Amino acid sequence: MGKDMKDSGTKEIKVNVEIFGNTYTLKGKGSSESVERVARFVDNKMKDISSKASVATSEKIAILTALNIAEEYFSLKDEHSALCEDLDSGLDDLNARIETSLK
User: Fold this and answer.
1) Residues with Cβ < 8 Å from 79, sequence gap 6 or more?
2) What secondary structure letter does DSSP report for 30?
3) Given this model, what pLDDT does residue 28 score?
């Protein structure tokens, strides 16, 4: 199916997927299920945007889909950063309380 990658020991795989009516051969590391999952996600996003937008070309739908996915990514990234900051703050507070109680 694929060749061994020298850097991580994982295999490179090739998977045929259908996205928005077109078949693509995608390469990836890991499992074919993971690559197919990503392809299904993109396909579903494109179909959703296509059903809501009055855009006619696949290229424009692909761009709107990319923008939509990027917006979701940055929103989740910001949320993740905020949660990490809250966690760090809480851990600092907990450490301070532990140190105080041990004195």
Assistant:
1) none
2) S
3) 85
Cα 86–chain centre separation: 23
pTM over 0.85: no
Residues 6+ apart with CB under 8 A from 60: none
- Whole-angstrom Cα distance, residue 20 to residue 27? 18
Determine contact, residues 52/34, Cβ cutoff 8 Å: no
pLDDT in tens, 47-69: 999 999 887 799 999 999 999 99
What is the length of the chain? 103
Q: What is the DSSP letter of 90?
A: H
Per-residue burial over 62-75, b if 16 or more Cβ lie within 10 Å, else e, is bebbeeeeeeeeee
3-state secondary structure of 33: helix
In one-letter notation, the amino acid at residue 25 is T
